[in-house]
Amino acid sequence: MIDSVYNYPLYRPPSEAYSLIIQITLGCSHNKCTFCNMYKGKQFTIKPFDQIKSEIDFFRKQINFIDKIFLADGDALIMKTEDLVKILKYINLKFPEVKRISLYASPRSILLKTEEELKQIRELGVSLVYIGLESGDNETLKEIKKGATVEEITEASLKMKKMGFQLSITVIAGILGNKDSTNHAVNTGKVISKIIPEYLGILCLVVHPETDIDIRCKKGEFIEASGDQIMEEIKMIIENINIPENEKIIFRSNHASNYLNLRGNLPEDKEELLEEINYALSNDYIRKRNEKYLKYGRNGF
Ligand code: SF4
User: Fold this and answer.
1) Ligand 1 atom with the shortest distance to the CA of 36
2) Closest alpha carbon to 204 in 238, 169, 172, 251
3) Domain of 231, in residue numbers
């Protein structure tokens, strides 16, 4: 029955592994990023309230207790505020035990909302928003067809913070392949220092089938960065994150796509993180690990 509720493929951030996922939209309203194939086969759709309501009823019957809910798919905040409010009110009615509601949001969907609208959404329990920055460099964002500028993403992020939302931001290492990525890394560090999200995740580019990058790879126009290049890039991003001592970013770079499992708090653990990367680079760890990946696949199976 659950399979008839969900419209696959279904994605959620790793930190939502134990959340109930409710699809209030399908697909992504942008769907053009050169590295992403998540919603290629889905037409962006805002689901009708009656359908969402009956799915919420279905989940309530199956689940005794849930404290986290994630609203999927790619850009749930793009929904009209009055419709989103209706859904959130119904979720609160049916799942009064819920402590956190989260969603992916695009800069556009945030900037389209007034502060008053965001306040209402926050008061109805949405407390964590996932934003894909990918890069803090405008040239890079243009190349990957992100559909938003650094200035827009920064403005949207700061607006959410002002309205009391927690932010989880992801950036992608290796997004330019083996080309010089200094601007991407340095500017990403600088933008993160400006936004100061609660959570920062650095992923490594994985070339997914049928993406623009995959097509360019096959034509020899895009060459993937080596593991060492990627680690140098992550090092540069961290070096350029400079925030006051009294601030805190929970930093994670431990997704399955990463070569080195890094976690810590910034700025507190900055030097330690850099030391870990330097140690791995100087001991040829990344190259050896990469060879293992090539032999057994990224998950080691
Ligand atoms: S990365 Fe995000 S915004 Fe870009 S196409 Fe994929 S889901 Fe849409």
Assistant:
1) 6
2) 172
3) 2-296
